[in-house]
Please model this.
Amino acid sequence: AAAGAPEIHEHLFKVLVIGELGVGKTSIIKRYVHQLFSQHYRATIGVDFALKVLNWDSRTLVRLQLWDIAGRDAVDAAGWTRRGPEDRMGIFDDEKKSLYESSTFEAVLKWKRDLDSKVHLPNGSPIPAVLLANKCDQNRDTSQSPSQMDQFCKEHGFTGWFETSAKIENLIDASDDLQDKSKAMRE
Ligand code: GTP
Ligand code: MG
Model:
């Protein structure tokens, strides 16, 4: 490095994005990385990768390697019973169903257990997990309060949770609440 130039520290993080078929994993990544949204659903096959580069501060560069994992393939790989397409749609993609129905939480716990059984940190502890409640632009009844969500995360080993939408522009960056929460989580 040139004399006097500040040294840049680079960090690479791998982020696994997992969840039921069609919940919006690919869409959230596309929104986050490319600021784009499409109504069109094309199921991910296998795994796709995306890279998000963050200029964290003047001396720190963070690269997020986002692993966009197919809901369908992971379910197959884990040997879960395959349901019919109607049944699968019912869990996450029926607009009348809320994000907060118990089937949604059961699915979340299934994914969390699968994650914890397959990967862990070098010291053996579970990898940090954040819960995203996506499609928050859709109608739903808010039967779970924020404090119930906090409690769910605490009980089941999630660092925190966020309501997200891939459809709404600037939701991730514009929300003061999200900013505050992610700041609190970093601390
Ligand atoms: P798999 O790859 O099959 O596991 O699905 P996925 O989780 O990657 O879902 P994907 O991102 O492909 O989104 C599925 C459908 O939901 C698409 O039609 C998206 O347009 C729609 N969708 C995703 N996120 C949102 C959201 O925040 N709001 C609304 N309204 N629709 C969304
Ligand atoms: Mg996908």
